[in-house]
Amino acid sequence: MPKRRAVKPKIDARVKKAVTRNAVREVREASANAALTVTTDQSVHRKAVAAAITTHLSGIAPLRREIAALQVRQATKSAAAEAKRAKLAIKTSRGRKAALAAITRQRVAAFEALAAVDVPNAPRYLVNTPFEIAGSGLNLSSFAAVPSNSWAKFRMEKKNTSQRRYGSVVFKFIWQNAGDKYAVINVHGYLILHGHCYVWSDGGIFGGDRTAGITIKPTLTVNDWTNEPYLQLARTDTTALEIRTDTGTVWDDAAEDMADIFRGYDLSQELILVPPRTSVGLVMSAELQYYAGQNSGIVQANFADGAFMVGSPAVLVTLVS
Fold it and tell me: Distances from the Cα of 138 to the Cαs of 20, 168, 184, 237, 265, in angstroms?
């Protein structure tokens, strides 16, 4: 039998075009649907994120208000407690007045006894009255230049200084090298500090510049005051008081620190070379350095109430050669 020949059906050209158009349309629709699906999913995601943030923020706001209220109450309690401590320190200072006077008399008597001793080739000079008492970077509420018992009073409170600052109480004495030759001298001075200091800084949820601190240094400076600019011949100091707080980390609590100070400080500098015919400035001072954070910080120094004060009774100069 003869083989049958397979006959392919003829497809009209118009049918082919129609099929092609349908295929292209389906591809486009599929792409559009896919893009629409992605866009819809992203929109949903963004809405979900926004809703979550709103929910959390609405929860944080009351929390922050509650914490702020707690901090205010804590600050109020700290201030009330410090007021009681300061009041007690002032009361105690009055009882210490007699002891302070005895310390001053004892030191001045020692200086006077040394000055009265006739040592060949080593005379001593007692300089017991400052020609000036001044405050630098702080205001003195009162002061008196009294032979062998000079004093000054001041009170300071600083908040949020955001940088380290300085102040001082200065007692200026003077001694003259009237000779035509260079002189070598030893200088001994005495400074009294009697007061109360306090620092405080708040806590917080987030980190910040929340800190407070104060340092007080009794200082003796010897200057050549003959000609300007004045020349510093010698200087010595010691740290009498240093208190500070630092509450600037995350979730930190408020903190405070305080100290009473009541004592005298011997300061001396030896073998100072002085030019001939020179006016020598003998400066006894209480140097203050303090800092209160920009976000939170309080520094208080009370050397004014009761028997509080800064004093410098005298300076002893020994002519070595």
Answer: 94, 7, 35, 20, 22
